[in-house]
Every structure is written in C-alpha cells, then in structure tokens.
Specification:
Layout (H helix, E strand, L loop, with lengths): L3 H9 L5 H15 L15 H20 L1 H21 L4 H22 L8 H4 L1 H18 L5 H15 L4 H21 L7 H23 L8 H21 L3 H4 L2 H14 L4 H21 L1 H9 L4 H4 L10
Helix pairs in contact: 3-4, 3-5, 4-5, 5-7, 7-8, 8-9, 8-10, 9-10, 11-13, 13-14
C-alpha cells in the first residue's frame, strides 16, 4: 500500500505531478469509504505468526489450569491480562490478545469457582452464578480496553450462562433471553453503522454469530422432537423463513446458518414420511440444503434487493446499505 510519504517523495522527485498525487489520494479515500456492498468481513487470524503464538498461549494456560487450585487460576488471570496488554497495546497482534483475554476470563471463573467451594451436585446451577459473572465482567473489561470485536462472541456466551444460572425459569428460556439481548444489541450496532466502516459492524457480526443460535436453538428444539405433527413442521419452516427474511433485511447470514440443521431434520422427516430409503434420507437433506445455500449465496444481493423493493422506503433508509439500489 502506498503511503503518504511515498506520494510526497514521488512529487518531489518529479515522478508524478502534484495533481496526479491528489487524484491518487482521492482514489484511495473513495476505496476506503466505499460501502460494505454485500460481503461480510470474516477475519479471525491475520497471519500464521499470530496462530503460532496462540498455540503457545493455549499450552501455557492449559498447564496453569491443570496445575489446579486458586494459585494457578490467580496467576492465569494476571498472566492473561498482561499478555492481552502486551499483544494488543504494543505488538498489534489481535488474535493473541483475544486468546489472552479469554484465558483471563476462564481463569477468573475458575478462581471464583474454587473459592466458593467447587462443584455441588445439589446446587450446581447456583454455584455457577458467580463464575459466569466473573467471566462476563472480565470479557466486558477486555472489550472496553482493547476493542476486539471477536470478544463479543464469548461475552454473549457468558451472558447466556449467567442468565441460565440467575433467572428463575427453564434454561431454554434463559438461552432465548440471552440470544434476544445479543441480537438486539447487534441490530442497534448495525443500524448505527450503515456503511459498515467502523468496528461497530464487526462487533455486530460476532453478536449475530452468538445470538442467532442462542435464540433459535431452544425454539427449534421445542418443536423438533420425534413424532411431531405437520403443525410442528410448519412451525419450523415458518421460523426458518422468518430467520431468512431477518438476515436479508440486515444483510447478515448468521441467522440463516443457525437454521440449517433444523431444516435438515425436517427434510429427513419428510423423506421418511414419503418412504424414501433410510440410506438416502441424509443424502437428500444435505443435497437440498447445499443447493439452497449455494443459490442463496450466489444471488444474495438480488434476493435482498427484491425484498427491499417491497419494504417502505422510510424503513429501508434505516437499514445497512446495499450494493444494489432499489
């Protein structure tokens, strides 16, 4: 990538004119400020060096946890925060900073778990309340300190665990609640960054990845037990269709991905009802799902444009931008 100093040197050495340099700057700025189009950025590890360091981190923290006790966990919390500060603040290595932040949260949860007496078969859910809270606070502080979007994923998972241990209703309802909170926050971030040029959209991406299965899995599992009626099948198809519309409106694929396994179950049930050979039921489900996903992926922007064409303009103007104008 050409730097500003390169352009200045090129002008001073008469390689290009000042007018040409200005045009190059304008071209670069236009590229940087170009709307997100229809491709969600999916970057976890920048390079092999970060992955190599992360392997060492996993081995290091695994040794601390295997050593056990509050001493190992306490040292893990300190080491995790020190590593995160070093990699995020001094080396600009995002993935090792993410691994260190997650390790610090796990060690904090384990430290609290050991300090509160460990596992209790009769009150195991209540015993996990404080460890989940410790992990949630640790991840939240890491997000506030380092602004690493991937940490939104373990944050949402910690929130789901805390909701399951805290709320006085069935675990499935707690997961739905946590998933709904994650999805709502993702939507708010998405709508505040319609061009997807800031970290808000990156945080929203990982909140969708975590929130969609947390929200949808309990709903699907409640209507996909063996022997369900045609009404249950219709409910699954209706939920999947709603997830698809939701994903298209916000230009996000995660809600659709979260529905695939349950659509596969419905296809297998239908094939069984049609007396199709058991050996072909799974193959048929995979073929239908694979073909559908490929076609939707190829014509995603056309499908989104068609949907937005029937949505009121006042609502469309609040949604993330799309490459195909309607």
């Amino acid at each position: 990538m050409i730097r500003e100093s390169d352009l200045e040197q090129a002008v001073s050495q008469n390689v290009i004119s000042a007018e040409q340099a200005a045009k190059l700057r304008a071209l670069a700025e236009a590229r940087i400020r170009k709307p997100h189009e229809t491709n969600e950025r999916f970057v976890v590890v920048n390079n092999l060096a970060e992955l190599f360091v992360s392997i060492g981190q996993v081995l290091f923290f695994a040794a601390l946890l295997i050593a056990g006790g509050s001493i190992g966990a306490g040292f893990g919390v300190i080491a995790g925060w020190a590593m995160a500060e070093f990699f995020a603040g001094h080396r600009n290595m995002r993935w090792p900073a993410v691994v260190a932040s997650i390790a610090a949260a796990l060690c904090a949860a384990w430290l609290v778990f050991v300090a509160t007496g460990g596992f209790d078969r009769d009150e195991w859910q209540a015993k996990l309340l404080l460890p989940y809270l410790a992990a949630l606070i640790s991840i939240g502080l890491s997000i506030w300190r380092y602004r690493l979007p991937f940490l939104a994923l373990p944050f949402a998972c910690s929130l789901a665990g805390l909701a399951g241990a805290l709320l006085p209703w069935p675990r499935e309802l707690s997961l739905v609640t946590a998933g709904a909170i994650a999805l709502l926050l993702a939507v708010v971030l998405d709508l505040s960054d319609r061009d997807r040029m800031t970290r808000k959209s990156a945080f929203a991406f990982w909140l969708y990845v975590a929130g969609a299965p947390l929200f949808l899995h309990p709903i699907y599992s409640s209507v996909t037990s063996p022997g369900q009626s045609l009404v249950a099948i219709a409910l699954v198809l209706g939920i999947a269709a709603a997830s698809c519309l939701f994903g298209l409106l916000l230009d996000r694929r995660s809600p659709i991905v979260a529905s695939l396994i349950y659509l596969g179950i419905i296809i297998v049930w239908s094939a069984r009802a049609l007396a199709i050979s058991p050996s072909l039921q799974t193959a048929l489900a995979l073929f239908i799902l694979g073909s559908g996903v490929m076609l939707l992926g190829i014509w995603w922007k056309q499908a989104r444009a068609a949907l937005l064409s029937v949505v009121p303009a006042a609502f469309v103007n609040r949604l993330p931008l799309t490459e195909v104008r309607t």
